Write the structure tokens for this entry.
Amino acid sequence: MSPTAAHLARAPHAALGHVTFLGAGPGDPGLLTLRAVEALADADVLVADPPVLDVVRKHARAGVDIPQPEHDEPSTSTAGLALRDAANLVMAAARGGKRVVRAVSGDPGLDGDAGQEMLACAAEGIPFEVVPGVATAVGVPAYAGVPLRSAEGADVRFIDARTASDRCWTEIGASDATAVVSTTLESVGAAAGELVAGGRKPETPLTVTVAGTTTRQRTWTATLGTIAQVLKAAKVLPSPDGGQPVIAVVGEHGAPAAQRDRMSWFESKPLFGWKVLVPRTKEQAASLSDQLRSYGAVPHEVPTIAVEPPRTPQQMERAVKGLVTGRYEWIAFTSVNAVKAVREKFEEYGLDARAFAGIKVAAVGEQTAKALVDFGVKPDLVPSGEQSAAGLLEDWPPYDPVFDPIDRVFLPRADIATETLVAGLIELGWEVDDVTAYRTVRASPPPAETREAIKGGGFDAVLFTSSSTVRNLVGIAGKPHNVTVIACIGPATAKTAEEHGLRVDVLSPEPSVHKLAEALAAFGAQRRAAAVEAGEHVTRPSERRPGSRRRRS
């Protein structure tokens, strides 16, 4: 019987589980394939080295088992798990009937350890599959703006400097192929020397990229003869374990500096590498953080308020019952938290979105409207202009006893909300049940490391989306350092920031968190352009010395 036939004969064994060898790509979680996400969602057990685990963890289902090695010996790989540990964990889980995902960096077909684990599965008749990933040697040059093949169609050769033989260096050195070298930052100079010794000219251009496809990515352009000096001049520090992986692309076709200047799409993003503090709750910050990541930023969410139920819930309970019995013509939501509070009360009573039938629903802005849609409710009124209580009043119809059978509005809101909307609705002829749906209290202080980064200039920018976020952040964490860019959603928030001794650099043209992020990105692009024009390499505010002068956008 052939090995393949034997494998198929053993595969249906009911007691055995299943193993998926999954390529996690070079580091950017966005490079995971759709099949990879599906496999992670179905996994009972997830085995991965720590850096890879950070990439795949969020796609795993809740409750997935993530085992760790039990022995105290140091790992035999810089990534974390030793080969024997990972293999033992995978095999033990599969023998127990579990669906196992074994996630590796790059592509499993280029990982020798994963290959050995596949053979172990085959030997025991454990069914497995392979989900390819973006190979590091291909993905990193793409993010660095370095095409591996030119219009002339030059050959591309891949070499791992850690295992390459003298013959391998000689063959590639004697060729004119584009060479993609996997090495470490500390060994780039030695690899360049091997290629020169093999026949490459010292003036052959190359690029060296560290932390490829992540927002820590950095690329240097030099020649084989000058790369060691370039890295030394850039004051590149060796990693603690002496082996920070890099991808070097060598060749006339693959890495000329002028070509990379035109094709560097990733590192030239307007907020590339900026650490941006987002002082909102995690639920509120999600879409804003995603937008910041699209600009190349690294968002750090710090809640400044905590949401708690009202001290006396009876008022809210009466209002929800009145909503069901037809007491109201309108219900107005002024925040995502108000939607959440009403939704939770509905669920407590066994109600759903159908209870809104016959009631007009208003939302103060896009995010609140989205929360309603997620609940199954399409709002009848969203401000056409400014997304605020004033904007909502601009579009709110006056009470008309002919067309409006009921004259009452249910307004669930925070305990600290202003009276603008209530007063405006009364002026329009409506009766308002102004109900405290939730309380906002100051959140607990963030970890000491975050507080030190805020006060010490570790963040490049802070986004303030309300006056309360200014007051609360300063109260729980201290005042941001004067090198940090301060961005505010509107004039009132900016005034509060200035009252706390902060200089406002960016003011959103509209009271929208997404317009605020756009304004910060435009500011970052202007700063980057000015730095490039001045011949500077520093584009992040936190990299500049404290006290540097700011300008208002």
In short: Confidence is low (pLDDT under 50) at residues 1-14, 71-81, 547-553.
